[in-house]
Design brief:
29% of the residues lie in helices and 22% in strands. The protein has 315 residues and is of the alpha+beta class. Keywords: Chaperone, DNA-binding.
Length: 315
């Protein structure tokens, strides 16, 4: 996994959210395993998704900018906890040269330094009474769970392998709810950072990232798909099949006189929602002309051109 998420996306640390999104989309299209058959494309694609999942969220990006690659080990309310503890008049006991006492805690990535603070009092205020004596609770951690559109639609049980605290791979059994959406988090209780002493471990949150799809485009639970139709189907009307993210097909009626870009809604055929109404499936029509014409087809098109007074550029 890339150590520097900005480098992974090829953007500067001052890049705007739009620049980050544009860089991700460009690289994701290039390295998507369905498009790029290079042996390293899949791993590169995973790195891109990981980088984008962090930098596309302003809050997560700010934590990454501040704490580096260990940002997931820091409690989200770290500043509030330190601020609450710092106001209690601590007894600075450790020293590290000039400038006053310095407390070092290497679990925060960059050394955390505070003048005049006793480490036991600090942990006591941050994590509750008795924390310094009974141990420090483990920090919540977050990782990415990359899914295809089809996998997100179906849900089900998945085995996920992630790097553990010592760098060794760990396997987790995860129940993915059907219709999970991009950015949704799945909680694995007690699978986060280890606590010290008798303190409980933190939780592990898997943030879902749905991979770009060559056919489907997601908007929340709604699904958009382009449906090619022949010129005569668009002109005369027809019933055509539409692929669904569940792997099947649905039927949609194309009204006579339809043009490219027209959207036809299939209610409830989008991503499932266990707690409410399913999303909708939008079929976006795209008129496709035969790449080559037989003699009779050419004659018929020529007759149509001669008989019709329709000018699309004047409409």
């Amino acid at each position: 996994m890339a150590r520097d998420y900005y480098e992974a996306l090829g953007v500067s640390r001052s890049a705007s959210q739009d620049e980050i999104q544009q860089a991700y989309r460009k690289l994701a299209r290039r390295h998507h395993p369905d498009v790029n058959k290079d042996p390293g494309a899949e791993e590169r694609f995973k790195d891109l998704n990981e980088a984008y999942s962090v930098l596309s969220d302003p809050k997560t990006r700010a934590r990454y900018d501040r704490f580096g690659e260990d940002f997931r080990k820091i409690p989200e309310d770290f500043d509030e906890r330190v601020a609450a503890g710092a106001g209690g008049g601590f007894r600075g006991r450790t020293t590290a040269g000039g400038g006053g006492p310095r407390v070092r805690y290497t679990g925060f990535g960059d050394d955390f330094a505070a003048e005049g603070i006793d480490i036991e009092d600090l942990f006591g205020s941050m994590f509750g009474a008795g924390a310094a004596r009974g141990g420090v609770p483990g920090a919540d951690q977050e990782a990415e769970l990359s899914l295809t559109v089809e996998e997100a639609y179906r849900g089900g049980r998945r085995t996920v392998t992630l790097a553990g605290p010592t760098g060794q791979p760990r396997r987790y059994e995860v129940d993915v709810p059907p219709g999970v959406t991009d950015g949704q988090r799945i909680r694995l209780a007690g699978e986060g950072g280890r606590g010290s002493g008798d303190a409980a471990a933190g939780d592990l949150y898997l943030r879902v990232r749905i991979q770009p799809h060559p056919r489907f485009r997601l908007d929340g639970r709604d699904v958009h798909v382009q449906v090619p139709v022949a010129p005569w189907e668009a002109a005369l009307g027809a019933t055509v099949p539409v692929p669904t993210p569940g792997g099947g097909t649905a039927k949609v009626t194309v009204p006579a006189g339809s043009s490219s870009g027209r959207r036809l809604r299939l209610r409830g055929e989008g991503m499932p929602n266990p707690r409410g109404a399913n999303g909708d499936l939008y079929a976006e029509l795209r008129i496709v002309v035969p790449p080559t014409l037989g003699d009779r087809e050419r004659e018929l098109f020529a007759e149509l051109a001669a008989a019709s007074s329709y000018d699309p550029r004047r409409t």
